[in-house]
Amino acid sequence: MQGYIIDVKNVRDDDLIVTILEENNLFTAYRFYGARHSTINVGYKIDFELESNLKSSIPRLKDVIQLGFEWILDREKLYCWQRYIKLFYPHLKEVEELESFYFQSLDDTVHKMIKQNPKRAIIESYIQLLEHEGRLHKEYECLLCEQKIHNKISLVRSFLPTHAKCSYSKTFEFNQIKELFDEASLLKFEDEEVEYLWNILLQGL
Ligand SMILES: [Zn+2]
């Protein structure tokens, strides 16, 4: 099986509890002496096997092989990637059967990050995730006053639209946000605006 490591917890001395996002499942597995295995790290894509164990309620993770990314040695890309992928754990941890969308989306993002700025690639993927989950609010009603938004617009957590005057947040042009929501494209955004959106994303998926 293949999957992305979205959470790693230390237990006892060197052992780990690892959560892996596979195409159709979220697996939580036990890894003995994990600290000695450099292949276990949040954000890594791995090939792995699970071994059930009568003594334990969770399976053992074994035969782990790290599947490299072209940019794995680029510290900034890896750092952004790890911060993003960690957000999937609180977002999905209650889910038992997973849609393949999440795995595909991570695969696509890894690929886009070869050429693209990591924060831009991740935010564009996140827009598609919101769309997929039916959480992209294209009716442009303000979260706070529930009135239509026509020109100046601000985004709050989960990219929910508000009037700039209602949330006292950074202002964007309406058409800029509309293009972002319709086309999942940040082409019209300056780096400093991308940084602002990045910090909203880090508040949680
Ligand atoms: Zn408002």
Automatic annotation (TrEMBL):
Top-level taxon in the UniProt lineage: Bacteria
Domain called DNA replication/recombination mediator RecO N-terminal: residue spans: 1-72
InterPro entries tied to this protein: DNA_rep/recomb_RecO_N
Pfam families reported in the protein's UniProt record: RecO_N_2
Organism the protein comes from: Candidatus Marinarcus aquaticus
Protein's UniProt name: Recombination protein RecO
